[in-house]
Amino acid sequence: MRSSLPCQVEHVAEEPTRKIDGSAGDADYGVIGTTYSDYRRPDPRIAQVVWDALGDARTVLNVGAGAGSYEPTGRDVTAVEPSASMRAQRPESLSVAIDVVAESLPFPDKTFDAAMTTFSVHQWGELDAGLAEMRRVTRGPIVILTCDPELLDRFWLREYAPDVISTEGRRYPAMSRLAAGLGGEVSVDPVPIPFDCTDGFNEAYYGRPEELLVAGARAACSAWSFVDPEQAETYTARLAAAIGSGEWDAKYGPLREQPTFEGSLVLVRTMPAA
């Protein structure tokens, strides 16, 4: 449902430095995001978790909206996304995303019933400022789909590509920091990852390791872009050899039959203080 909310610039904060295509975080989506939507398609089961957390909100702000993954249908959604390459990948059925950053939202206080952001907070230049802005413009729940850095070691990729996991560990904010930045009543709940998950973040391939041998799949997971290309190729070759020799299956084969995986994926939800 297209948003009818006007872009009223009533609150202006200093923006973080932005890259050529407008990306405001630490990853340059003008380089790595051109085929993002080919591999990062919203999974309907994860989407339902996000939508349920929004409650009965009619107006929803989606911050760092990217190509539109997990935006709810049948609601009045306003999307903001600084990366031009990501905005260009949004389907016509969704509203046109506004070119602004989380740290400087151009809306009056308490404009929206709810706000959401998915796989985005770890890329904001000024996390605390972005969280404060979301709280400022939102009357009700704020919903964040992210990964808990304390749980990343549950995933076998730590053995074959340790720098990828350590990079994610540095980038994803701790749950305590999100709670402090959002305030109010905060809950953090695990989100089971389906075996055939259509959203290709690293852990989505927990039982399909061959998928991470595909360059496009790795490119859609921004942590890989922070690893030296030669090192990344070494990691890929290591994983390919482990799969080919049967080593991976000897260690992790039961995951190929496991319907869900409880890794680092979590849903953070906060309601404003009474």
How would you characterize the overall build of this protein?
By secondary structure, the chain is an alpha/beta fold. The protein has one domain (29-271): Rossmann fold. It has helices at 29-32, 36-39, 44-53, 84-87, 127-137, 157-160, 162-171, 175-182, 215-219, 229-245, 247-252, and strands at residues 59-63, 76-80, 114-118, 142-147, 185-190, 193-194, 260-261, 265-271. Strands 2-1-3-4-8-5 form a six-stranded mixed β-sheet, with helices on both faces. Helix 5 links the parallel strand 3 and strand 4. Helix 5 crosses helix 8 (175-182). The longest helix has 17 residues, at 229-245. The two termini are 30 Å apart.
Brief overview:
With 274 residues, the protein is α/β, with parallel strands linked by helices. Helices cover 30% and strands 14% of the residues. Helix 5 (127-137) packs across helix 8 (175-182).
List keywords for this structure.
single chain, 11 helices, two-stranded antiparallel sheet, Rossmann fold, disordered N terminus, alpha/beta, 274 residues, S-adenosylmethionine-dependent methyltransferase activity, 30% helix
